[in-house]
Structures are given as structure tokens and as C-alpha cells.
Specification:
Blueprint: E1 4-7, H1 19-29, E2 34-36, E3 43-47, H2 51-61, E4 70-72, H3 79-82, H4 88-97, E5 102-107, E6 123-127, H5 132-141, E7 145-146, H6 161-168, E8 174-177, E9 188-191, E10 198-201, H7 207-214, E11 218-219, E12 246-250, H8 253-265, E13 270-274, E14 286-289, H9 296-311, E15 317-321, H10 329-339, E16 344-346
The protein binds adenosine monophosphate and magnesium ion.
């Protein structure tokens, strides 16, 4: 399959009438799948009402069938089509964070949407992305759109159109290139089907921000205990992993350097994942700075690109610094721990 690339760089008013968006929207109505930029990462969009379209998403990504898709909408009224009830706390969260990087889990209307899109669950995760190209595409096609991250399953999520092509060229109908995404880590997933909301996946909206709006918010136990079964089915899978083994190191930079030296003496090529502040302090084969530690948002924005850059290098082993878990640091550490397969070295 020839994968079309549409460059959308002038964000004019009425973007939904832009010929490239109209072209992509028609492909969605024809039950083809196309990648779109969102404010978090690139998503692989398909008609969530069609088994055929949803199957193409799972196939292109190699995504396990028990990992449900997040449904993307452009207007709140679309919820009525497939959500059974909208609890008050969900209403408050939508008012504050939509459009934005927050996915809300609702009870699903029986029979609505493709069963494959929700992996047979009686709940559905929904979000309204805050990106002009995604919103224009969603408005133009008028469909509820299933859109997981547009990467091969297990790889780091894509934050540029080139990342999408690296993984999915020839497997999808097209990609709307809207430049690099902003937040860089996926949406926060919060379950609003119980009286107290529960975070199933940390992301662009922090626990503190949620609590400021709805009071108490819980965190799924699986996020702190790797032996617990996660309530978001996707959280159990290996994810975001670079090709070379990645170790998180809890210790000083001198300790990390010692680990690097030991491996280099064994003849291995060693990479270090650090930040701009500390880049000059390490002597290794490849030292990559992932944003600025003093501004964790920049680390989130650069994370997946940095993990993917290691795949372009002849690196045998990677050591990464750790990050504080406040604010967006919670999402950063969650993704890094998964990327490392929970391999942590303590000093
Ligand atoms: P991705 O689309 O790759 O960013 O992943 C979507 C995440 O949302 C996965 O971890 C899914 O398991 C989770 N998710 C989607 N729908 C539901 C649902 N109905 N209940 C719980 N988790 C969900
Ligand atoms: Mg994903």
C-alpha cells in the first residue's frame, strides 16, 4: 500500500475544509486508517463503528486484540451516541480539561461502536484531543474515531510524522504531518465509572490537577506494584522499549559513569540518557540529552524521540538517569520503567 503524506503546516481557520483534511476524512469514511498529530503523540485513526477499520488498526500496529482503543471526538454531544451515562465528576473534568490530554472511562451503551474497538469491555475510554489538525479531521469525518498511538506495538510512541513512517509506511493509507507533537507522552487515563475517579495511566494531566477539580483521586495499584493486574489492559504490555537493553539507575552521576566504564572495558558500546544540564559530565559512546531536568515538560516532549534515536546508533546497553515523580514526572517515570522492563540498578 502506498502511504500518502499530507503536510499541513498552515493552520488556517476552517481547517476542516482544507483539501488534505477532506481527503484524509474521506479515507476514514471508507474505513481506511490514517495517522494524525495530536497534542500528545501521533494517533492511528480509524472509524470506531466499523469492525473492518478497527481490524486494520490492530493489524498495522501488531496490537494485541485485548487492548482497547481510545475513542476520539470533536464535540461533546458525540458522547450520547455510545456512552451510557455521564457522571457529574466526569462532567467537571471534561469542562476543565477537554480538549486536552485526558481520557475518561465511561460505561458504554450496549451495542454501540465496534466490539473490537473496546476489546469486548462494557466500558469505553474517550478523549477530545487539543490539536487543530486532529480536531479538523474529527469534525470533517463526523465519526467516533479509535486512535491508539501510531507506532508498531511495543516501540516508543511517535512524536513526529517521520516516526510514524519509520514504523508503518506501506501499512496505512496516509499520515497528516503537522510537525512535532507538544506534550510528548500519552493522555492520562482516568476511570470515572466508580464514585472516586481512579488514574489507570499517568499522562499529560497530573493527579494534582485532577484533584484540584474533583477532590480525591485514586491511583490504580498496578502503577505502584508491578505484581498487580492493571485495570487498563494495555498497561500490562511491554512498551516504549529501545532495541538495546535499558537500565534506570538510581544513584549519583559518578555511579552511572562507573557502570559505563565497566561495560566499555568489556568492549561494549554504551549509551547514557541524561538531560542538558548533565550531558557534558559523562564520557560514554553516546550521551543523549532528553530535555532539561529543571523543566520536566521538556523531558516528556523529548522522551520518545530520544529512545528512538538510540535505535539509530550502534549501542549495546543504555543507562538512564531517573526523574522525580511529581507532576508530569509521574508519566515520565512510568514510561521509562516500562521501556526498561523494570530493570533498575540501585547504588
Ligand atoms: P494507546 O491508545 O496506545 O495510548 O493506549 C490506550 C490505553 O487506554 C491502554 O492502556 C488501554 O488499555 C487503555 N484503555 C482504553 N480503553 C479502556 C477501557 N475501557 N478501560 C480501561 N482502559 C482502557
Ligand atoms: Mg500506545
Amino acid at each position: 500500500m502506498n502511504t500518502k503524506v499530507w503536510k499541513v503546516d498552515n493552520y488556517v481557520d476552517k481547517l476542516e475544509t482544507n483539501p488534505q483534511i477532506v481527503d484524509a476524512a474521506q479515507l476514514l469514511r471508507d474505513n481506511e486508517v490514517v495517522a494524525m498529530p495530536t497534542e500528545t503523540v501521533y494517533g492511528l485513526a480509524g472509524n470506531a463503528e466499523s469492525d473492518a477499520a478497527v481490524s486494520k488498526i490492530y493489524e498495522a500496529k501488531g496490537r494485541p486484540g485485548d487492548n482497547p482503543l481510545i475513542i476520539h471526538i470533536a464535540e461533546k454531544q458525540q458522547l450520547e451516541q455510545f456512552v451510557a451515562e455521564v457522571p457529574e465528576k466526569a462532567e467537571m473534568l471534561m469542562g476543565e480539561f477537554w480538549p486536552g490530554p485526558l481520557t475518561i472511562i465511561f460505561k458504554k451503551k450496549p451495542g454501540a461502536l465496534s466490539e473490537k474497538a473496546t476489546a469486548g469491555l462494557d466500558t469505553v475510554g474517550v478523549r477530545m484531543p487539543n490539536h487543530p489538525v486532529a480536531l479538523a479531521l474529527l469534525k470533517s469525518c463526523g465519526l467516533p474515531i479509535g486512535a491508539p498511538s501510531a507506532n508498531s506495538s511495543g516501540k516508543p510512541s511517535p512524536t513526529t510524522a517521520q516516526h510514524v513512517l519509520d514504523d508503518l509506511q506501506g501499512k496505512i493509507a496516509g499520515v497528516l504531518d503537522g510537525g512535532a507533537t507538544g506534550v510528548g507522552v500519552e493522555s492520562t487515563v482516568v476511570d470515572c465509572t466508580e464514585s472516586i475517579p481512579v488514574i489507570l495511566r499517568p499522562g499529560g494531566v497530573t493527579k494534582e490537577q485532577l484533584e484540584a477539580v474533583v477532590g480525591e483521586v485514586l491511583v490504580d495499584r498496578a502503577l505502584t506494584d508491578e505484581h498487580e493486574k492493571p485495570k487498563a489492559p494495555g498497561m500490562k504490555y511491554k512498551h516504549y522499549a529501545p532495541n538495546a537493553p535499558l537500565y534506570l539507575v538510581s544513584g549519583t552521576r559518578a555511579f552511572i559513569q562507573q557502570l559505563v566504564d565497566e561495560k566499555r572495558q568489556e568492549g561494549l558500546k554504551v549509551g547514557v540518557l541524561t538531560t542538558e544540564e548533565h550531558q557534558a559530565e559523562f564520557a560514554a559512546d553516546f550521551v543523549l540529552a532528553c530535555g532539561k531536568r529543571a523543566e520536566l515538560e521538556t523531558v516528556a516532549a523529548a522522551l520518545y524521540d530520544t529512545l528512538r534515536r538510540f535505535n539509530q546508533l550502534e549501542v549495546d546497553v543504555i543507562y538512564s538517569e531517573m526523574f522525580p515523580t511529581e507532576g508530569v514526572g509521574h508519566a515520565i517515570m512510568n514510561r521509562l520503567q516500562k521501556a526498561a522492563g523494570h530493570k533498575i540498578i540501585n547504588q
